[in-house]
Amino acid sequence: MDAAIRAYRFQPLGFNEAYRVTATLSSSADTMALTSLSVRFRRIDRLRLRRSASDDMDLYKRDYDWIMSRQDVRIAAMPLEYAVYNNTLQFDSMADQNYTLILDGIKDLGVSATSTASDASAWFNEARELIRHRAKRDLYAFTIKDTDLAAVAGEAERDALRTIKAELEAQNGTGFIRPTEF
Fold this sequence. Notes:
Layout: H1 2-8, E1 17-25, E2 31-33, E3 41-52, E4 55-58, E5 60-61, H2 64-71, E6 76-77, E7 81-85, E8 88-91, E9 94-95, E10 99-107, H3 117-126, H4 128-144, H5 147-171
């Protein structure tokens, strides 16, 4: 089961996503430990900095070397860029004041017996069919070596993934409002 969960841990499936998680970047800090956040992130998709009550600014994601070259010059300013490295957020400059950060991304729900029960149960409650069919496909393909049964389990896995994605799309449904004349 662990391998089946690992196969999907980076895919946005709804139940494993976190939106608008807030954190505070302290004045004079140019790093923030991801372990200090209220949610364990597997991947950060978007990081915003709150400039005012109605103004959030997206920070640019850069690679670690880029950020380190910016940190060579130690200035205090509003951060504009960040990198994720060694379980920390690294910013291009030291914060000139306390800032509220808003993070969106994929939560780390764990994949092993060392994970908490509530984290692991999300996979078993929300994606039971998906991970079950993935585990069966791996069992048939790599242990039993029956390609026909592996193909059947693979098709069931694809159906389960389509179902989860369809449910997610229904929750995120978009539409339009048609003006009418009264």
